[in-house]
Amino acid sequence: MHYKLKSLFLTTLLMVMPFCLCGQTIILNPKTAKNTFDGIGVVNGGGATSVLLKDYKEPQRSQILDMVYKPMFGASVSALLVEIPGDGNSTQGSMPSHMHYRHDCNFSRGYTWWILREAKRRNPMLTLDATAWSAPHWIGNGNFWSKDAADYYVNWLLGLRHVYGLELDALGCRNERGDDYPFVKALRKALDDNGFSKVRIHAFDNWYDGKLNFVKDMMTDSALNASIDIISGHTFGMGYPVKPEEREMARKLGKPIWNTEDHVYLKGFDCLITIVNCFNRNYIDNGVTKVVNWYDIGGLYPMEPYSADPPMLLAYEPWSGHYRVRQSLWGYAHYGQFSEVGWRYVDSGCRHLQGGGTMVTLMSPKGDYSVIIETKGAKKVQTVSWKTAGSMSRNTLCQWTSDSVNQFMRRDDVKAHGGRFTVTLQPNTVYSFSTTRGQQKGCFADIPTSKPFPMPYKDDFEDYEPYNKWGFLPHYFADIIGSFELKASPDGKGSCLQQTVGEPANSWAPDWNYYTIIGDSAWRDYEVKADVWLNHGDKAAVMGRVFDVGFGWGVIPKGYYLSMDEMGNCAIVVTRGKVDKTELVGDAEQQAIIKSGIDTGVGGELVLAKAHVDGVSPYTWHNLCLRFEGKKITAVVDGKEAMTATSSYAGHGMAGLMAMKDSSRVSTPYFDNIDIRPIKGNDGVSSRPEIEPLY
């Protein structure tokens, strides 16, 4: 080639080539495959994370579950950890306990049993794990670390076994609430004494620095060591890592390390690749052999905390059937469709890559290999070669990739040359290479279009019988604190709804009045009506224009409610969460009230108007109506206007029901004939949808 042409060719080639091709060769030595892969997966719970999933019609309800749990289809996770429901708020809401009080026992309440059954039915090899966040007050009289809690766990396991035919593989002590050595010893004994000796205990599931300080005590306390099967904590990959000395102590004790809750709060492809980075680094940097991320299916209202990030699938429109698969789901698939619990990590193939990114290699008992690579943050193209010191099941590897444009795509197989596999890795890409086959990018073509919540909406709670078919839960309601359950009407006429928790729960999140929400946060001018039955000492409310229920683990809403006690004392109240007293609520008069110091409520409550209504008494039905027209708020009791108020604080929001609480007691009122309709054009009535029961 002519010198000038050759020079031009080389210059052009350098311009179009990446800056550098970094080569590295890795020997996959099966003798280094010593640690068992215990799975990757998800948490269902830590709040009522999937409460609206139960209200989807078929086939969408099954499609959503397939996308998460069906092997070789979608995320195909191999591990599931659920919250054992406990009546209190656990981040995004509460779920009903199987034991509201000491001698209560009901294995049909809620939807968690159904999730466990459906997930396991799709994948019989799925491992099942559980622990409590909140718990009923009766346990230890408010002190969770008690024999009551151990018995409570055993009772739940008995229901899981005898009613649903399911066995738990592992059990935590309590989510993120410190540690207690006598308790874990008592729990081990309770499990062994009641036929659950195969259920392994992981401890202590905390997230902060120093969360594994207890491991050194396991070295000298033989009873503690015998009680804890698995050393566990949270956010090793995205927070505080396992310290080298802790990892060494775990090795000497022969105990695996599990990450029982990691977190990736990102969007789009950045979430996908970071999930794989998290899974890889959990093992490479921390020696963690099982990781579950919080959480799986976002079946809750969009205004609730963490509703869009981090779930892998959004399912908050059961009335329309619409749902949306997030890109992050395919991050799980890069592990889930290429591995099974019981494989082993090949340590010689688990490392940080020279050019940026991480690599984990897994080997099956039959000689299959899977290599999962991510190149997040890499600046250059790099080449990686690997060969095994032993035999592989085949001499070709399937190749699946994800990048910011295309997720989970099948690429050309990679063939061995001289026993060596060589691949070129692009920056910011996820790869799965495997000798296994059968992977697919599952999808469904018939996902309905998104629609607003039906308005008007009415439910008289009839036609739910028997209530256990529905988990005692009405359609579309999302409990934030407490348990609003389907019940027989106290007057013996049909069915209704009752807040059934009579004592303040041992709540994982802060506590407040007990309430449930329904509807659309975009609603503006409308009225919400409900019949209310008050027991002696009860105080209840209907809610409206609720546009926020707190962020993180906060539970205090922002919006309005109309309350009434058994004597007919009523009030229109605005609640603004935990806010400063200088926050503006409406006109100048209201602002003056706030600044005067009268506004002292724990939730930023401000009474806008008060009234006494004659003829109100307990143990009978009364109708409460809260109406919004612009800034005007009207309270109507038993069909008669009781008072009005003016406020511009909340111009839109959802409806709800509330049971008031004090320091020692929670009201347990009944509610019936919920009717929500716009101020204009309110003639129509939306009937209760035909939805398949859970049980």
Number of helices: 11
Structural class: alpha+beta
Q: Give the mean pLDDT.
A: 91
Shape by Cα distribution: globular
Major pleated sheet? 8 strands, antiparallel
Low-pLDDT regions: 1-20, 579-587, 596-600
- How large a portion of the residues is in β-strands, by DSSP E? 25-35%
| Helical coverage, percent range | 10-25%
Rg computed from alpha carbons, rounded to a whole number of angstroms: 28 Å
Q: What's the β-strand tally?
A: 37
Q: What is the distance, rounded to the nearest whole angstrom, between the alpha carbons of the first and last residues?
A: 77 Å
Question: What keyword list fits this structure?
Answer:
single chain, 37 strands, 11 helices, globular, eight-stranded antiparallel beta sheet, 17% helix, alpha+beta, eight-stranded parallel β-barrel, 695 residues, disordered N terminus
Question: What report would you give on this structure?
Answer:
The chain is 17% helix and 30% strand. The N and C termini lie far apart (77 Å). The longest helix has 18 residues, at 147-164. The protein contains 11 helices and 37 strands. The model is unreliable at 1-20, 579-587 and 596-600 (pLDDT under 50). Strands 2, 14, 15, 16, 17, 19, 20 and 22 form an 8-stranded antiparallel beta sheet that branches.
A few lines on this structure:
This protein is α+β, with helices and mostly antiparallel strands. The protein contains eleven helices and 37 strands.
